Amino acid sequence: xxxxxxxxxxxxxxxxxxxxxxxxxxxxxxxxxxxxxxxxxxxxxxxxxxxxxxxxxxxxxxxxxxxxxxxxxxxxxxxxxxxxxxxxxxxxxxxxxxxxxxxxxxxxxxxxxxxxxxxxxxxxxxxxxxxxxxxxxxxxxxxxxxxxxxxxxxxxxxxxxxxxxxxxxxxxxxxxxxxxxxxxxxxxxxxxxxxxxxxxxxxxxxxxxxxxxxxxxxxxxxxxxxxxxxxxxxxxxxx
Length: 239
Description:
The protein is an alpha/beta fold. Helices cover 48% and strands 17% of the residues. An eight-stranded mixed sheet has the order 3-2-1-4-5-6-7-8, with helices on both faces. α1 crosses α2 and α8 packs across α10 (227-234). The protein is globular, with a radius of gyration of 18 Å. The protein starts with a strand and ends in a 5-residue tail after the last helix.
């Protein structure tokens, strides 16, 4: 795989594009908004600057990474030579189904279609394409360049070949891919969201305050941040 198209230049999309580009892939970053593309590229540049400042990469590495990314506002133009497309648009079912119908028509027949969805059925997304065996979930964690986990979600029709290809590809990014099946919330959010909800109930019932709840979970359960802090980080609307 040489060319990776990423749909959406928001927080997850620009992080995914950054990660692939830094690993030497040619990336086509696609968004309907030129403003979003510029903002996404600025975010990537700033994140690379932080890595240079920490001496994790060189200025030459930064320049090479940015040089590996091209931006497009037209999906058809952006995906025409893609080996893999990773969709990272808004978490909205109708929008994702529309995008995947368009990708199925615009992409070469051997292009793998992946989605970064954290909750929408891979099987349902794959069903609107003529290649459900080549549709798979790649659920990256935020911030993408730093977090090691990628949930690899198989739809009911996803082939073993595609699954194995994406598992190996994730390893080349320095990630730890973990295969899960297509159930609501997959693993990460199936467990995380009830925990966050229970933390909110614990606060509501007056068991403890915000900092106390988060401290118990950080120090007692070795979580890097407490569930209430994490809920704010994710965004309560998204939760």
